[in-house]
Design goal:
Blueprint: H1 4-10, E1 14-19, H2 24-31, E2 37-41, H3 49-59, E3 65-69, H4 75-83, E4 88-91, H5 97-107, H6 120-126, H7 130-137, E5 139-144, H8 147-151, H9 153-157, E6 164-167, H10 169-175, H11 187-202, E7 206-211, H12 214-222, E8 227-232, H13 233-255
Parallel strand pairs: 1-2, 1-8, 2-3, 3-4, 4-5, 5-6, 6-7, 7-8
Helix pairs in contact: 2-3, 4-5
The structure holds 3-hydroxypyruvic acid and magnesium ion (MG).
Magnesium ion binds near residues 168, 170 and 171.
């Protein structure tokens, strides 16, 4: 069972993809394109538990680390998704050290946490020793994307057992009253991002964020981000379809 920590110790600059579409078939095509990790997005994606389960099954056939993003800090959902085989949980809008502590607690078995025992699919997939190994392998990523989360970032990063911080640049820009750009951070968002990265480094946490384009993902990895999300299945589909349609229209216009 190779979790995020083990993968990041072998290779930095992991590439993550987000799955918004509730389809195991889409997930399989997407996850076969070379991503290191893929996250089923139950926050903004069109996903529910049933679609997440079938996607986790599809991802099992691909060489990616299967992760989930939950809609809010919900212990029941965290436990069900881990039991279904997710190897890590990204939690949006982590505002306080207490939020981060709860995230870690719900994702870990006692004595480190309060996760209930019953890894029904996870032990079938990862083996009978799953429950003994899970606390070392399951990743918890706390999203810093609010003013409150930013103000408390030091205490959040200090949370025992937390794997990493994940910066939501869209929400963070919104919270700071600043514009979002695809190819860079706004200057004030940049300062906030630097604070979050520094806090994660001081406490030995991994740090990741979102990039809309491969060029932006490349810049962020060169800057030292441990992992970067290169947009979503929906964005990939829209971008390629739009590029093909407009190329065709240009060729047609030129032929007239
Ligand atoms: C944000 O930019 O707010 C995100 O949550 C990215 O995933
Ligand atoms: Mg967000």
């Amino acid at each position: 069972m190779r979790g995020l920590r083990a993968r990041l110790s072998a290779k930095r600059g992991l590439l993550n993809g987000y799955l918004m579409l509730p389809s195991a078939a889409v997930a399989e095509f997407y996850a076969r394109q070379g991503f290191d990790m893929v996250t089923v997005d139950l926050q903004h994606g069109l996903q529910d538990y049933a679609s997440a389960l079938s996607i986790l099954q599809a991802l099992g056939a691909c060489d990616v680390l299967p992760m989930v993003r939950i809609p809010w800090l919900d212990p029941g959902l965290i436990m069900k998704l881990l039991d279904a085989g997710a190897m890590g949980v990204t939690c949006p809008m982590v505002n306080t050290a207490e939020d981060a502590r709860r995230l870690v607690t719900y994702a870990h078995y006692p004595p480190e946490g309060e996760r209930s025992l019953g890894p029904i699919r996870a032990s079938a997939v990862y083996g009978e020793s799953y429950a003994q190994e899970a606390n070392h392998s399951i990743a918890t990523l706390a999203m810093i994307e609010t003013r409150e989360g930013l103000a408390n970032v030091e205490a959040i990063a200090a949370t025992d057992g937390l794997t990493g911080l994940y910066i939501g640049p869209g929400d963070l820009a919104l919270a700071l009253g600043r514009p979002s750009y695809q190819d860079r951070f706004d200057v004030q968002v940049e300062a906030a991002v630097a604070e979050i990265v520094a806090a994660s480094r001081r406490h030995g946490r991994f740090v990741g964020t979102f990039a809309a384009t491969p060029e932006r993902a490349h810049v962020l990895v060169r800057q030292g981000f441990d992992f970067v999300t290169l947009n979503t299945d929906v964005a990939a589909l829209q971008a390629q379809a739009a590029a093909w349609v407009s190329s065709f229209r240009r060729l047609e216009a030129g032929a007239k």
